[in-house]
Amino acid sequence: MKRSNRLILLIGVFLAVVAFVLIVILLGGGDRGGPGATPAPSPISTVIAAQDIPLGATITEEMLTTDNLLAQQRLPGAFQIPSQVVGQIARQPVTKGAQITSQTLNPLSQTFEVPEGQRAMSVQVDAVSGVGTAIQSGDYVDLIIGLTGDAFPVVQLNPQDNSIQVVAGLNSTSVKVLLEGMQVLATVQPETKTSGNQPTPNPSASPTPNGPDLTQDSTELVILSVTAQQAEVIKFAQLQGSISLVLRSPKDFFDPNGQPILPLPAGTTGVILKTLVDGGYGVLRPELVEAILPAQ
């Protein structure tokens, strides 16, 4: 009887060992991709900057490369194919090796860095003075000033008492391109106040999914990179005249390889009424018209 019990015990131990080995084999097979195993995540093609891309540059194929990254390594909004971003303007500077994302092309939250030796200065524009508020970070703009008779009267010296007198009847309006080639560091859409004094986005000035808002009542703060002298000129122009920002082409400031270049100054003459009449624009002088009235 004792011998039978020992045999049963040995058989039980043997079956337990076999069961343990089978469990180990099944679990090990799952790790090797067997039936019922969780598949390993596949890497995803991701667009990477092959070189430093400056703010405002038009992205070319030569500036890009791709790398296969796991999903947890990719940034939100990362692109998979270079053709998705070629021809777009970099609205943020990109360093070599960084991922190209939707934030690069259309930043929802804007942070900017003032270039060394420059100043950041904001200019408020509307749909008329700011190209329909279509100006975006990275763009280049010129500033035009218009001065009217109130700020720029034509005067003469009275020879009798040396007093200064305003000459009546003359058009004293003057317009000139004042500053050229200023880069936009960022743009800000103003907010409106609700009845509870809580700021809410201005519905007439908020950007649309396909680009900036172009409605007639839209406004925008454009933050410019300027020198100290340019900052003084802009402030004077804001106080004394009417200013407008003119949007420039990025091709004026970057070569085909995306390297910054300095365009030549436009060298404009400015405009007054005499310029329109005598400067080849074809504006005619008013003339006295004599008419013979019929006899009563």
Structural class determined from secondary elements: alpha+beta
Rg calc: 35 Å
The main sheet orders its strands as 3-10-7-4-11
Strand content: 15-25%
Unreliably modeled segments: 198-210
- The percent range for helix content is 10-25%
The major β-sheet equals: 5 strands, antiparallel
Main features:
5-stranded antiparallel beta sheet; Type Iii Antifreeze Protein Isoform Hplc 12; alpha+beta
Task: Give an overview in words.
The chain has 296 residues and is of the alpha+beta class. 18% of the residues lie in helices and 23% in strands. The strands form 4 sheets. A 5-stranded antiparallel sheet has the order 3-10-7-4-11. It has helices at 2-31, 102-105, 228-240, 273-278; strands at 44-49, 64-69, 119-126, 140-147, 155-157, 164-166, 174-188, 191-193, 199-201, 219-226, 242-247. The chain contains 4 helices and 11 strands; from the N terminus they run αββαββββββββαβα. It folds into 3 domains: 1-40; 44-105, Type Iii Antifreeze Protein Isoform Hplc 12; 119-278, no CATH class.
